[in-house]
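Consider a typical record:
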Amino acid sequence: MARADDLAMFLGQPGPVARLWLSRVRGSSPRDTGTDMFVREDGLFGTIGGGQLEHLAIDAARALLARGDMAADLDLPLGPAIGQCCGGRVEVAVLRMSASDKTKAIAAAREDDAALPAVYILGAGHVGRALAAQFQHLPVRTVLIDQRADELTLCKAAIEKRISAIPEFDIQTAPKGSAFIVLTHDHGLDFLLASAALQRRDAAYVGLIGSATKRAKFKSWCRKHCDGVSVAPLICPIGAGGSRDKRPAVIAAQVVAEVITALTSETAAFHPHWGAASHIAAQ
């Protein structure tokens, strides 16, 4: 998911653009302070939470652009008066963007993209490709890895595809806080890769496709071959949400939910901005 490229394309179109951002949030709100979006007369990019809050902010931004004004501030209670029930209150800053503002916004989005947590899918079979198809729409950097070029070519998702003769090296060199989903075509390779991910001791998620029996076998294998490595953090089976449906897309949906929950939990190593270029200096 390369938000910066899409934003650059949006901001590069002719015509004025306004940037909206939540400059202050009190109480309950759909989004956090710093969340932003961009408004043109005929287009939108991003979201500050939807509902009447967003509609009112968009209307204010378009009115500002039409008048030729430079900036405005909104103070909106998220209650019955605007048809929302969050109960909080938000202040929204509205700014007509200069060329310099657009450059800063794109640079900030590129920093956000670079800071996204990484998800490594180890195995480009049916479930691996189904995972890639769903992760491509989420704020993570997804890498699909396999030793088989023909399997990788079957993946049409807009994510990184990587042929790797030694996928253990890809695990060892991954950023801190990455998620690893192991589902290769070979049980022995599965064990090697899952143990390599666990040995890092800094992964946000380590999942291994299989069953309770496979987990027990892996635990026994680790006792013999991986001195001191705990299998307690391992998720195996993955996507065990109670569904009897074994179609790859259904399994993938449950696994994606597990991984995103792990990456965005309060104790996760990384907290993605989820679209908020919050470090652009307030104007």
